[in-house]
Amino acid sequence: MTKASTISWSLLLGLLNAQGLYQVGYAWLFGMTLWVTFIGGTIAFKTLPRQQFGTLQHRTFPIYFVISIALSSGLLGLWVHSHPSVLTDYLRPSNGDVAQAYTLAAVLLSQAANHFIIGPLTSKTMFKRHKLEKQEGKAYNEPGVSDEMKALNKTFAQLHGISSLANLTAFLALLFHGLWIGNVGANIKSIL
What is the maximum span of the chain, computed from C-alpha positions, in angstroms? Predict the structure, then answer.
């Protein structure tokens, strides 16, 4: 039987360590990614008119990506600090610690690509399409839209697909990392 702990200020302050902060950071990142990818976006898509949905995504995604970049950077930094073999064995992805570093790097890179490249291009295309809909007096998917609208539709679909794939990559990488640390442990060392 385990001994019951008595809550004290020193016990509470002791919870603020690298291992605890790593777990909270991971939970925040995974939960946020799960919500944005599968729940919040679906609810908004089904509830809001299309142009309002697009505007909402345009406003919320940059914040989501910046938080994702910050958290995944912090997790990757703590992981490498705590598993120094990553720096010497980086060409051995079969090494579990190296594989996890690559996994966290995949999250960071996919979210950075979405924030700095794919997202801005997608938003720019979406707003061009909105403007052209007003000029033509037709929705993007109505019969008889211009060739320019058809080209914008194709570009938007491609960018949206790439963005979705990058975000799904981040989600799957985080799922893998969560399963890893849940079964093997994170073994995060103090940074002090």
Answer: 74
